[in-house]
TrEMBL record:
EC numbers for this chain: 3.4.23.36
The protein's name: Lipoprotein signal peptidase
A UniProt-annotated Pfam family: Peptidase_A8
Source taxon at top rank: Bacteria
GO molecular function term, any single one: aspartic-type endopeptidase activity
Length: 171
């Protein structure tokens, strides 16, 4: 007897495609930034394109950890990506699948950089006057959007659960 293999449904296919699209677009944008950004380009009073490389993670954490740190970060990122892809495979929620796809795609884009160059390519510089937000890339933006989407979903489901509980208690 052969075990039944689950075939990805439309929801999973779209989420996997979203992850792949994010990773590919991110890599293309980073390649263009590495090739073209010799000097910063000011687009608006608060947005510039400025090439940078981050050997660490968010806000430069673990930047000084060397090759061992780079491989450790890559291993952790690989485990997280695997967990996100498994989550996409099992979920029945379109919002959860989209959020996990955004996060996985961003994580894949940054992992590719870390493995190829030893650092993640950043190029988007948001600033107000002399105050600069840490430079980031499209993968980072996708990760933040995916996490925000998950948080909004959890918050919304918590609110619905609380309303339902209060409604039952009032009866």
């Amino acid at each position: 007897m052969h075990p039944t293999r689950r075939v990805p449904g439309r929801l999973q296919t779209i989420a996997f495609a979203l992850a792949a699209l994010i990773a590919v677009v991110d890599q293309a944008a980073k390649a263009a930034a590495r090739a073209q950004l010799d000097a910063p380009i000011n687009l608006t009073p608060f947005l510039a394109l400025r090439l940078g490389f981050n050997p660490g993670v968010t806000f430069g954490l673990f930047a000084g950890s060397g090759a061992v740190g780079r491989w450790a970060l890559s291993a952790v990122a690989s485990l997280i990506i695997g967990a996100l892809l498994a989550w996409i495979w099992r979920t029945r929620s379109a919002v959860t699948a989209a959020a996990a796809g955004l996060i996985a795609g961003g994580a894949i884009g940054n992992l590719v950089d870390r493995l190829r160059f030893g650092a993640v390519t950043d190029f988007i510089d948001l600033h107000w006057g002399a105050a600069h937000w840490p430079t980031f890339n499209l993968a980072d933006a996708a990760i933040v959007c995916g996490v925000a989407l998950l948080l909004l979903t959890v918050r919304g489901s918590d609110s619905r659960a609380a309303s339902s509980t209060l409604g039952r208690a009032a009866r």
